[in-house]
């Protein structure tokens, strides 16, 4: 890969990280009782993972979501770094389409994976198994909302030919 291509990917990763942080921390940010919050920033993580090679997508997801948690709920930073890295790895940028079967399956799978992971993290952070369900249910709502937004954005971006132009750059 040429240096200009790596620079382009690094810049796009930084832009995605910034957008993920803002969307997660400030736009449609709804606190839940366990100390976390509901947001739709994950939709941008899914898009980043569909457009960027895996290492860049993972970096954007970790930096963006981690920064959002650092700004709003610091106790969640470490679980978020791990969970969002795994989430980003479920998607592929190798398909010529954003909404390929793997990416749709990944979006659906993260609706359960992410809530379960955050539920387990809540149990550890709160020191009680009773923290699982409130965290799971709040994150489930977040996951469904992010999945729906991902599909809506994906359909719009597919029609615009963004994936082909992005890959060519």
How are the secondary structure elements laid out?
Layout: H1 3-25, E1 30-31, E2 37-38, H2 42-51, H3 54-72, H4 77-90, H5 101-126, H6 132-160, H7 162-168
Antiparallel strand pairs: 1-2
Detailed description of the structure:
Helix 2 packs antiparallel against helix 3 (54-72). Strands 1-2 form a two-stranded antiparallel sheet. A hairpin with a 5-residue loop joins strand 1 (30-31) and strand 2 (37-38). The protein is mainly α and 169 residues long. It has one domain: Arp2/3 complex 21 kDa subunit ARPC3 (Orthogonal Bundle), CATH 1.10.1760.20. The longest helix is centred in the last third of the chain and has 29 residues, at 132-160. It has helices at residues 3-25, 42-51, 54-72, 77-90, 101-126, 132-160, 162-168; strands spanning 30-31, 37-38. Helices cover 76% and strands 2% of the residues. It is globular, with a radius of gyration of 16 Å.
